[in-house]
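Subject: for your reference before the review

Hello V.,

The reviewers asked for a structural picture of the protein, and I figured it would be easier to keep everything in one thread rather than splitting it across files. Below is the amino acid sequence we used in the manuscript, unchanged from the supplementary table.
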Amino acid sequence: MTLQKRKKNKHDNIFARFFFIFQNVLFLKINCQNPPASNLTVENIMNFEWRTSSVHEQADAKIWDFLLTFPHTGRGSELPLDDQKKIANEASNYNMSIKQCMSLRRNILRAVYGPGTFARNLNMGDEKTGALYAQEFEHIVAEKLTAMQVSFVREQEQKQLQKRGKMEKHGTPDFFFNDPITINNHIIHWIEAKTPMGSLALAKFDAKHKIPMQQTLHQATQYINYGPGAIIFLNGFVPDLQCYVKNNIGNILLLDASELDLTSLDAI
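And here is what came back from the structure prediction:
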């Protein structure tokens, strides 16, 4: 082989190696900019149906002033029977139960007067009882998920995983799913369980202090980083809250407690 041919072959080999490296760099660059689409779809995850019966749109805003016309002391169950009947009749106009109205009244008073006045001066019950009620509701949801044969990670375990660097830190929802599920054809990575009624009026209320409804939505802005999720409201929600959450936070499904056995809450 002549010297000229050897030089030509050497040049060809260098060019071939350069072209190979260039192809791989280009491939990596393209794939970093456009990561492969996830094959996680509704079709390849088991779907669960969850009945939900929401109240009328803007029911919380329309009944707000009416609920404030009653004496601002004592729980709803402690109001005079005549007042309870008036509330029940008004509630029926918006497809609300009296229990939902009392939950809304409770949280309106909390928003208007603040958590300290709410507990001490309005005789609405102590924070400890409220915490026990919320804890029991979470237990009911956990039993439902277990019956559905769904594997989940609770808050304390999430904190341990985050501490060991085995889970991203976007808050700790009540239930986190390593393997997502679908409910009503929505992919769900996490669930938060809340006892108040889901109210858009409360979400938008200009309070000088944090109120539960606003805290719930603030938490959801963190949880959404894990992917789409769901919030289960014990006392239901107004449908316009679903639209507000979707437009302002992300793909979060709102559910009520229609599918749950709430008998154990009666003892609290």
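For the response letter, the relevant points are probably these. The chain has ten helices and five strands. Residues 56-267 form one domain.

Happy to draft the paragraph if you're swamped.

O.
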